[in-house]
Amino acid sequence: MASGDDDDPIIEEIDVYLAKSLADKLYLFQYPVRPATMTYDDVTHLAAKIKPKQQRVELEISMDTVSPNYCRSKGEQIALNVDGTGYDETNTYSAKMMDKQTFSSIQATTNTSRYAAAVFRKGELHVTPLTGILQMRPSFSYLDKADNKTREREAANEGGDSSQDEAEEEVKAITVRFARPESEQARQRRIQSYEFLQKKQAEEPWVHLTYHGVKDGRSDHERQYLFCQSVDASENSELVKTPKEYLAMLMPPLAEEKVVKPVGPSNVLSMAQLRTLPLGEQVKTLMKNVKVMPFANLMGLLASGTDSTSVLRCIQQVALLVQGNWVVKSDVLYPKNTFSAHSGVPAEVLCRGRDFVMWRFTLERSVMRKEIASVIKLPPEDVKEFLEHVAAPRANRGWEFLLPTDVDFIKKHPDVAHRQNMLWLGIQSKLEKVFNFSKEDFVPKKSAQPDPVHISGEQRLKMAQERAQENQSTLQKDLEARRAGSSIHIKQEPVSDREDEPMDTSCSSSIPNGSLNGYPSATSPDFDHTNGGSPANTASPELQDFVIKTFRKHFVITLNELKRLFNLHVASMPVGQSVFHSISDHMLQDAILLSQQCKQIMFPAQTKAAPDEQKVFGLWETGEDFDKHRRLLYDVFTKNYRVRRNIIQARLAQELGDVSKADIDRLLNECCSSHAGMWYLKGTIQS
Asked: Locate the DNA-directed RNA polymerase III subunit RPC5 C-terminal domain: which residues (predicted)?
């Protein structure tokens, strides 16, 4: 220690004094838009005012209008725009030119406890704490005043003197509306809104001040208060500390940091602040903000090392299990004695309605908003809020649950899933009594069906050729009867043992049971899961002619799109002249494969795509040289359902040599669609 002190000797000791005379009045002004060498000390200050609570200051400083750098015409134009041609005491520029500039302050920092102004004199350092640090910037409020003047003139020109000629207005009925009670959540949002803050700031009055220059005698007098008025150490107790107290001041305990909590919007959650709460409060706060969440995501938001068993115990108190995901309980979102922010409906009624929505999602993935509203009978705004918590709107499917079913959680925690199921049974019985319904009214009727068997295009072609040979005589008789103008259609019995419900394209208005949009659904008892249609009816020449013409026009088509085009084709035919009477999905596929010009493209299926969207067919053989380009494109898509343009271009160049940009553009326009920089086969972009 002695050798260390010798190497670094004390050169001088300086006494430090704390001056308090200006402790609550001393501000530091910064001018960030002007260099330090160009001060405003010698510039005339016309006025000054302050709002002490907001620490907001405004200074009016004169401008040198005779300077060669001042544009007189611009100054006169600005004054004319702001004040107009008339003279008034309230005019901003009384000299009819812009002869002054206003500076307005903003706070550089809200916490000035670490900043002070110091003066060194006669070997003593006198320190005065700063009340605020303000940055003075030019204010352009005069431009707002000019805009208001312009709008007033335009309104006066439009209105003219027509108001003098107008007759007395007719008496109109007035609708009286009572303001609904404001919830605590709505009040917090209103308090933190920009409009409310502006109103509060405007309520504080300005305090007008007198400015004294740097060399003014009053300024010299005030500068004396920067020195400590008493040099007695007993009165400077703040600086007389023991080493332990001084160290505590330099490094305060972490617990003291909780005194100042960050102020932020009500919908922003601070993770640092969240970690300071008990585990139960952390889970509750997260669920209230997120509304619906998988258990794995919840564990990821909590601190590492958190016990999953404890989290499970906490989450069951504030959330319910829906399709393997946790959804916050209704009474957590709508506490007792609160009301809807939209309609003023009591919390008890809101909880029952939201519980019904959650219960419906335990039965199926999608629900219809009209069906929900007809049961719970709440205002549309509240029903929409319930659905937005846990679902998202989908075209032609209503509202679909936000998250996929978490099967892994259900398998890992069967006891929790069973307990939650029992809770839902209890909630269901209460809802049935309140809303007077039965569970059977909503349970979709499904019949047990074997798992669908996927058959490749080559296998289907072989099967179709065999069936065509077996039924050639039957088809020939049927075609001759139709060409002869017979109005009676005799349906032949299928040779195969399989049965299915064909796609009805006749003019009959009846739709078979178990069909959706005219097609057999997956729940229909007559639906063939293997191929979707009857194997007995094979493609007629008219059907094959329609298929070939359609593919020569569209090149790549999904089965779903082909069915739509076929229905449009049948509907456009004159009544009584349709040759298509019973065409199934299977017959459409057979017609594609038997044409010898089209093939199925076996691209990797998308998990969210519909089964018909996964079946994609492309034009294969037209006799043109461009067929090679299409086949190479189809081969690229067998490895991925979406690719970039450069991948396609590289494959074509590898196999065919130099391919022009026009050919690549034609190929992509004929067979593909673009989305977000990627290329997809037509009809395979997920909606």
From this structure: 444-687
